[in-house]
Amino acid sequence: MNTTPFRIGTRGSPLALAQAYETRDKLIDAFPEMAAEGAIEIVVIKTTGDKVQDRALMDVGGKGLFTKEIDDAMLDGDIEIAVHSMKDVPTYLPKGIHLPCMLEREDVRDAFISLKSDSLWDLPEGAVVGSASLRRQSQILARRPDLKVVTFRGTVQTRLRKLEAGDVDATMLATAGLNRMDMGKHITQALDPEDFVPAVGQGAIGITCMENDTRVNEVLAALNHAETFLRVTAERAFLTVLDGSCRTPIAAQAWVTENEQMEFRGLVGKPDGSEVHRIERKGTATLEAAEAMGREAGEELKAKVGPDFLVVASAENSPTQAPIK
Length: 325
Prior knowledge:
By secondary structure, this protein is α/β, with parallel strands linked by helices. The protein has helices at about 15-30, 50, 70-75, 135-145, 155-165, 175-180, 215-220, 225-240, 285-305, 310-315, and strands spanning about 5-10, 40-45, 80-85, 95-100, 110-115, 130, 150, 170-175, 190, 205-210, 250-255, 260-270, 275-285. The longest helix has 19 residues, at about 285-305.
């Protein structure tokens, strides 16, 4: 009998913990013996991304800062699995670690939150929007160049406190994260993804483990949600081709239709919103076709915008105002 706890690695933010507890509950549903006391242990790991809160992610190394220390713990044998927000997971994982499992996807939409306006598009001229995302900044400024977007980091709770204190007129968060913490009441407007394209993997929880750990891979196979895995595979293939990072505004959404076909939309833009390019695709809903669809969409868009576009977009990445501390 295996008496070693099944250790789940996670960041320590309220949202990360909610996702870890959701994973724990699904493990227990699939394997009732894991309900025994001490069978599962949640290991909180503080990442560089959590420690540095006064600067934009692009200024301190990008999204990998939310996963590096957790990856290191897995490579050292301190955890069996790691639970991540898929939009934080780099497209390339450390050697030996892979991503075999995603839980069923939540709402993919971005949430506009304001105490002053009912809609992002109704904000008065010159209003200040707090956001940690260049993707959101680009799409906001493409439609409303009169607005000011400032770097706005911290936990969901921290950002909402700053909003209530009047540091900004509005902010934007992922609807999925608010729902997972039972905080949906704060949403002023959930934005239609056709108008405001979400982040790659937004709303999905990904679970990584060591590639050669047969037992853990068998456990995760029971948790994997096939349709979510399919959709996010297409989106990540798109991101990989464009070599996306926190320095480049890239967005994508894939979904499966009622007739079991897959549809895809992708976007790349400049941080200041002065130029935004979109692409759409349709195809069969298989894993191989999904990966090809995302890759081909990325290659077509990359060819369309030219070799210098992403480099220029990366260079023009400073927010319109200094960060809110």
